[in-house]
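Q: For a teaching session next week I want to show students how multiple molecules come together into a single three-dimensional assembly. I've collected the sequence lines for a complex. Could you give me the predicted structure tokens for the whole thing so I can convert them for display?
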Amino acid sequence: MSEIAPAIELVGISKAFGPVQANKDISIRVMPGTIHGIIGENGAGKSTLMSILYGFYKADAGEIFISGQKTVIPDSQAAIAAGIGMVFQHFKLVQNFSVLENVVLGAEDGALLRPSLAKARKQLKSLAEEYELNVDPDAIIQDIGVGMQQRVEILKALYRQADILILDEPTGVLTPAEADQLFRILGRLKEEGKTIILITHKLREIMDITDTVSVMRRGEMTSTVKTSETNPADLAERMVGRKVLLRVDKVPAQPKDVILEVKDLNITDEKGVHRLKGVSFNVRAGEILGIAGVSGNGQSELLEVLGGYEKATGEILLNGEAIDLTGAFSDGQSRRARGIAHVPEDRQHEGLIMDFTAAENTAFGYHHDPKYQRNRLLMDNAAIMKDAQEKMDRFDVRPPNPMLAAKNFSGGNQQKVVVAREIERDPDLLLVGQPTRGVDIGAIEFIHQQIVALRDAGKAILLVSVELDEIMGLSDRIAVMFDGQIMGERLPAETDEKELGLMMAGVTDGETA
Amino acid sequence: MDFFTIVQLGDASVRMAIPLLLACLAGLFSERAGIFDIGLEGKMLAAAFLSAAVSLASGNVWVGLLAGIGISITLSIIHGLASITFRGNQLISGVAINFFAAGLTVVIAQGWFAQGGRTPSLPKDARFNGLDFPGALTRVRDKMQASPGMQFYSEFVSGHSILVYLGLLTVPLSWWILYRTRFGLRLRAVGEAPEAVDTAGISVVRLRYSAVIIAGILCGIAGAYLSTAVQAGFTKDMTANRGFIALAALIFAKWRPWYALGACLLFGLFFAIDNRFQNIQLQVIWIMVLLVGSAAVMTVYALRREKIDVLVLGGLSVVLAAIALVTWFGTASGEGIGMIAALWETVKVPSQLIQSLPYLFVVIVLAGFVGKAIPPRAGGQPYVKER
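A: Of course. Below is the structure for the complete assembly, covering every listed component.
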């Protein structure tokens, strides 16, 4: 036992949601003034553990010690009082409030607002100086970027005098440059004696800034090591429980004819904002074009136009023939009939109907296919079921039960259902949006292999992802989008994360050179 | 139209606007906290009945008012239980309250008073009577002969019941609460982002219940005003869809107190016109110009909008044009004169048309004629902690 009490000590924490044991007898010690990483696959129980610490859930068993003091945390108010601040993955900000109002909310000094706001304004100024956290206190949240919004979340915690800061997947929405800036801020906070817990699934971040790292797997804390004494491959193995391929294994592409040609695509939304500005590119048979960019820079709209559920002006050629951008034949059904398959970005809202069975979900969009029809009136459920069973077996969907509702599968297995449905149609062009968002490492590996296999079968693939690692690993060619425009194209072998990161932040070709 | 008529019209507008305004602010508090309240109508109706009944029994209108507020709060809490605690569908719960109030008020009224579902007329001291300000003229004949300033003071400023003045005061009060107090900040936050409120360590449930109870109080006053100040007793369905018009006014007002006052005064003006000008006479050509003109404006506007608006506004335009044509042809054949000559005939404007003005306006407002109104983001959604 060291003489300094740990900032946080959890002893024997357990939590079950129904039959699912989210946390199993977890014990962890985090020393003050350190950055402690918690890494694990989706569903490993990281967020549950932190939610218990922040008073969102009540643990079934176990004890919490803050700076050596046994502490009971029944709600968030108690966590805040104990000096714990949390920055959630999805920010908890009121969109139409100012920065100042968001900071003050819940930490007001009295029944009237004016004095609280004045005090907070002063406090924010000194915090900004102390930690280089500059934010305009009067800016409205919906008008500022995600990087700024994250600073507001950190300021919220600091304003409440948090000594312990928990960040849940903080870099998911940031450009590499913004992420570096965040890490500088975290380093600064650490110097000032704050304790930081960083939850992430990105191995690189763990290696870069943490002092110690704990690995979680299936609700258990499998190991805690000093970051300096481990490496990414070792951590990945601890997370998954077996050896994992971190790099995508693929042979060089053999691009052939141009399958998809996009010329001067423009979208102006109802507010008059240009979402796409003259986007042009092409994708050849047998290659993967990766589109990198921070989310919200037009990639989603691009996929929606190509998939047939967003209108645009411009020209799209598939195999040299124009496809309709407006009118009755501009819908998703017509696109699929032309050989465009689509794995949408948001699988829970666009890719699947969560309350419907896996079998139904494997047929959706292609349910007019004669093989699913018994006669002109009735669908052939037996055929759908048999087809679904085959797909689920081939794509290793677990559990392999076609009668189970989509919502009852894990994120990775849901995604496998979508990927199976689209790839099995043998499309000429596959659109893939965020194929591995919220998918665990094991399933990522599998999905990546399937995409590469489709490429090797001579199909064109358009990949949109906000994960730079994924873009770098999978693509044969990389286009970067910023503010509705293509900033430029690069070959993966001839570029690096730094250059792409600058392009993602809107720095043009000329300036990077 | 002389000045006194305008003053009278303004006076009537305010009177008609007050119940709308109170209901509108009730909806404002509720919806700003993220709870849709389609049951404003039912709460007003229940309060109208109970405050009339209790005023009658106790002889004290203030006791009646309290009873009205009480029943309205009770219904609010039922709505809260359904939509906050049990996370049910807020629209269904609201509709249930409306049905419940519409049926039960009549049944109980019949059971207690046996006068066909109404309460007996309230005696003068069991009602809210007009307050006459010092120096104000009270007799219509005196007022008509007074100076314009005096007319304005006597008719428009003075002579309303205390609930009117209270009702008008709720506007600045609501604004102050929403924008200047801690409670208001939290209330606005819970309707936009309940998760932000929850993670800040504040109870979402408590805030939403407070909002719903405030809505109950305001609806209670609105109901009592109808049966003890505007009229002397309760009659079946006496709220006459004011709860729904208040919701339209709320959208029109973009969920802001001062705008709500404006919206409700406008609706009040429609009601006042309807009350006063039952027998308005106009030349047929003017009726045609007005109706066909507004139909044309609506059609042109509708064509630039989404499908649903085309349906609503287009349909409405057709109806207006049809009324215009019927009036024209009707005049021509009724008087036995030529179509052109009929244009210059002076006829009574169909009273149904004037009566339907506020409702037409509601439809137009709801079809989005007044620009985009962005409702509170978390409106209508029960708050569930995410995993």
